């Protein structure tokens, strides 16, 4: 929104109006609608993977069941809890942004980011575990314990899905880091100016939501 | 805003009227003349012009390769290239035409230019995203072209697996390029949807939206909902090519038909991304030059949404011979025919608009006539190939090539040329020579027919597509097709010459040379940077309101 010449003059709690919008309400409405549309494209991106998962699960039911029992359920569960909690702190950030408590907003985002780091570290352990075992995608699969046709495909999908999800975690973290610094430096979130926080949190909820689907598909069933 | 743009009020709205002298509001073309003021602009009109330049360039590249294909097909044996080069040539042609020309052409150029004007808005909702989408498009385009030149790609634009994951040609950069271009398409679609929802001027209700805006809305919905799926697919296939995971490779337990499902889940709706904007353009053109209120406004608007909706449920008609069950094939066939029903609604309404109109036979109207023919004929052959029993005979023959060229090239290129001529005065404030316009249109329309009607016959006689040699008996029709393609190319040449000439020497067109009732003509031609000077126009009438059908039986002859 640098299209406004008054960027430097932005005072606390007062959002900047870009010159092509009629009013702040319209501008916020546009931002939210844009974000919802963007999130729906993200969901569709993952939907393609879910379709692949569904098809191969149907073609190789035993292999998928066997391979899924090979994932570390504890780590997966811990990660699920961590991610859901991080979604809560992200939601609280929006709550405090509306109240103009910029310090708390920054804190909430710091917590969210911290949990995201924990998530990634755990994920890293899981990955290295899989690498060591040879539970790798396609032609690289060399785990002696499970030898069924279809298992390498399972791990292909596992790495694609969790990899793509992890990539989204990283993107989400960058957004939240940016918002955290904004809250700390500019301190201008308030009742009239919290849309940026809201959108950032929405993105984070998406990351959480996708995981809520991945977890049962990959670990539980 | 762009750095060297006008010094007038930037920021809050009302300040704008403060100094309202005309010299304060130069047209967007001259408001800032540095290279930077163009490359970094966030003005939707300048972005549209930059798109236009690039898209025409890519059209030229695709066209040169089309001519290479046609020259190769002049003789039954090798003519100017070997088999591998031929494979790469038609792949490059298909890729460039589909992803770099047809999909962005009308929305990114004309949609970008006129949509905000039609809505009485100062810009699209997210101007920076708009500029970003141009550069994303270019980045993807150059990556793909780089891949096609260095190593080439011989899979055809459909990248069918498992061939595409095993060929030794460079699949990865091309696919990744296509993936990147997808983001540009999503960004444009998203921007348009939000713009239409939030930026309509007071007075423009949903049912006062010009039909072009309705068409763009439907198109954008498809772009946003279908593109992510192919994006994912492109990434997976790139990975497959590099690491041979085997997700779509039967040798490793993967399922190539799953690839086809995902591919066509996007690519069938993609053909409506290409053709729906054309329908929108034609609704504008037909009303303007018939000087008559559009017939069946709501039916036309809803049928765009209808096409967008059923477009998602018909992809299976590309896989009639892939082993899907007869029942599935039947369902997909019937659903496909529904698209024909929606298209027919539009066709009848256009014809109803022309009926008893005071037709002003200008160049865009000539393209409308060509368009009507190609849409009806191409649509009818579409119904024919949607019939399973017939398609088994025609599948992967030149009949299919002719079918999709009739619709995509015939209808969409007609609309592209119609838009170019119709909005040329709006964009540049200049007129072109009407006589040359009509001559070129004649070449183009005849050329298209001469190119593709022989291909329908070839397909029906059993000539398969994508083959580089063919039996003697197909030669006569191939020569006819190549001759037609030359006429077509000649037509494009004429257009290029007189339009460039008009840019330099054309007469000033005045604000509204067609005396159109379209909202976009309410601003100056070419428009000033923020589209409107002074108080916002009001919108008391419906768009396309030439004659009140309730009051006047007889059209107002002018
Ligand atoms: C300028 C006149 C054109 C001529 C003479 C021409 C000719 C051809 C020919 C001979 C083929 C190869 C068919 C085969 O071997 O299967 C082809 C394929 C194709 N063309 Fe064109 N074409 C033209 C313009 C266009 C345009 C404007 C588009 C934009 C949509 C287009 C889209 C395609 C597509 C999608 C294919 C299929 C490529 C494939 O299946 O690999 N063509 N064209
Ligand atoms: Cu189709």
UniProtKB/TrEMBL annotation, chain A:
Protein name, UniProt field: Cytochrome c oxidase polypeptide III
Family annotation (PANTHER family): CYTOCHROME C OXIDASE SUBUNIT III (PTHR11403), NITRIC OXIDE REDUCTASE SUBUNIT E (PTHR11403:SF6)
Location of this chain's protein in the cell: Cell membrane; Membrane
Keyword ATP-binding found: no
Xref: CDD domains: NorE_like
GO molecular function annotation: cytochrome-c oxidase activity
InterPro entries named among the record's database cross-references: Cyt_c/ubiquinol_Oxase_su3, Cyt_c_oxidase-like_su3, Cyt_c_oxidase_su3-like_sf, Cyt_c_oxidase_su3_a-hlx
Membrane topology term: Multi-pass membrane protein
PROSITE patterns per record: COX3
Cellular component per GO, a single term: plasma membrane
TrEMBL record, chain B:
Location(s), subcellular: Membrane
SUPFAM superfamilies assigned: Cytochrome c oxidase subunit I-like
GO biological process terms, semicolon-separated: aerobic respiration; electron transport coupled proton transport; respiratory electron transport chain
Record domain Cytochrome oxidase subunit I profile: where: 38-540
GO cellular component: membrane
UniProt keyword terms in alphabetical order: Electron transport, Heme, Iron, Membrane, Metal-binding, Respiratory chain, Transmembrane, Transmembrane helix, Transport
Segments passing through the bilayer: 48-71, 91-117, 129-149, 169-194, 214-237, 263-287, 299-317, 329-352, 364-386, 398-424, 436-457, 477-501
Gene Ontology MF annotations: cytochrome-c oxidase activity; heme binding
Pfam short name (any one): COX1
Membrane-related topology note: Multi-pass membrane protein
Protein name per the record: Cytochrome c oxidase polypeptide I
């Amino acid at each position: 929104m640098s299209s406004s010449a008054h960027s430097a003059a932005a005072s606390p709690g007062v959002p900047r109006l870009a010159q092509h919008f009629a009013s702040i309400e319209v501008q916020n409405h546009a931002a939210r609608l844009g974000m919802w549309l963007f999130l729906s494209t993200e969901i569709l991106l993952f939907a393609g993977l879910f379709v692949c998962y569904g098809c191969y699960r149907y073609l190789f039911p035993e292999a998928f069941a066997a391979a899924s029992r090979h994932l570390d359920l504890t780590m997966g569960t811990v990660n699920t809890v961590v991610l859901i909690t991080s979604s809560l702190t992200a939601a609280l950030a929006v709550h405090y942004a509306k109240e103009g408590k910029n310090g708390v907003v920054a804190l909430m985002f710091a917590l969210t980011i911290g949990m995201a780091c924990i998530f990634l570290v755990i994920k890293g352990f899981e990955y290295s575990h899989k690498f060591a075992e040879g539970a790798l995608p396609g032609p690289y699969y060399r785990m002696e314990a499970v030898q069924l046709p279809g298992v390498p495909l399972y791990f292909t999908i596992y790495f694609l899905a969790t990899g793509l999800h992890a990539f989204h975690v990283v993107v989400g973290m960058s957004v939240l880091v940016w918002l955290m610094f904004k809250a700390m430096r500019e301190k201008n979130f308030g009742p009239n100016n919290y849309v940026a926080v809201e959108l950032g949190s929405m993105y984070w909820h998406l990351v959480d939501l996708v995981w809520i689907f991945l977890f049962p598909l990959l670990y539980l069933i | 805003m762009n750095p060297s743009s006008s010094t007038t009020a930037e920021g809050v709205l009302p300040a704008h009227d403060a100094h309202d002298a005309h010299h304060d509001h130069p047209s967007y073309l001259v408001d800032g003349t540095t290279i930077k003021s163009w490359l970094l602009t966030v003005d939707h009109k300048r972005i549209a012009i930059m798109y236009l330049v690039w898209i025409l360039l890519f059209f030229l590249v695709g066209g040169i390769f089309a001519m290479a294909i046609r020259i190769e097909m002049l003789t039954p044996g090798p003519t100017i290239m070997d088999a591998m080069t031929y494979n790469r040539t038609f792949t490059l042609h298909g890729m460039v035409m589909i992803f770099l020309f047809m999909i962005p052409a009308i929305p990114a150029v004309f949609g970008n230019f006129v949509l905000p004007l039609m809505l009485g808005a100062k810009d699209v909702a997210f101007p920076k995203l708009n500029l970003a989408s141009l550069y994303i498009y270019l980045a993807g385009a150059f990556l793909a072209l780089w891949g096609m030149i260095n190593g080439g790609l011989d899979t055809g634009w459909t990248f069918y697996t498992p061939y595409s994951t095993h060929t030794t040609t460079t699949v990865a950069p091309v696919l990744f390029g296509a993936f990147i271009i997808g983001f540009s398409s999503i960004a444009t679609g998203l921007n348009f949807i939000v713009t239409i929802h939030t930026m309509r001027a007071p007075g423009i209700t949903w049912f006062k939206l010009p039909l072009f805006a309705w068409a763009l809305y439907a198109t954008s919905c498809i772009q946003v909902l279908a593109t992510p799926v192919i994006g994912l697919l492109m990434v997976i296939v790139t990975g497959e090519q590099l690491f041979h995971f085997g997700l779509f490779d039967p040798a490793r337990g993967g399922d190539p038909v799953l690839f086809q499902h995902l591919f066509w889940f996007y690519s069938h709706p993609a053909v409506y991304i290409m053709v729906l904007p054309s329908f929108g353009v034609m609704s504008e053109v037909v009303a303007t030059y018939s000087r008559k209120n559009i017939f069946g406004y709501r039916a036309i608007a809803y049928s765009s949404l209808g096409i967008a909706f059923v477009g998602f449920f018909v992809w299976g008609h590309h896989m009639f011979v892939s082993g899907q069950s007869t029942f599935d094939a039947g369902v997909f066939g019937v659903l496909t025919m529904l698209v024909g029903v929606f298209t027919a609604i539009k066709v009848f309404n256009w014809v109803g608009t022309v009926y008893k109109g005071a037709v002003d036979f200008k160049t865009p109207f000539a393209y409308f006539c060509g368009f009507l023919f190609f849409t009806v004929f191409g649509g009818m052959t579409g119904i024919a190939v949607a019939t399973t029993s017939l398609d088994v005979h025609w599948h992967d023959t030149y009949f299919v090539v002719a079918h999709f060229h009739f619709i995509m090239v015939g209808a969409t290129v007609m609309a592209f040329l119609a838009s170019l001529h119709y909005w040329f005065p709006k964009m540049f404030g200049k007129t072109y020579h009407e006589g040359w316009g009509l001559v070129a249109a004649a070449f183009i329309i005849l050329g298209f027919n001469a190119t593709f009607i022989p291909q329908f016959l070839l397909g029906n006689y059993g000539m398969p597509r994508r083959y580089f040699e063919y039996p003697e008996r197909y030669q006569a029709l191939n020569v006819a097709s190549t001759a037609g393609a030359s006429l077509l190319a000649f037509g494009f040449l004429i257009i290029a010459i007189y339009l460039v000439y008009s840019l330099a020497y054309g007469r000033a067109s005045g604000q509204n040379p067609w005396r159109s009732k379209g909202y976009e003509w309410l601003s100056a031609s070419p428009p000033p940077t923020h589209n409107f000077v002074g108080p916002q126009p009001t919108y008391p009438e419906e768009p396309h309101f030439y004659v009140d059908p309730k009051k006047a039986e007889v059209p107002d002859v002018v």
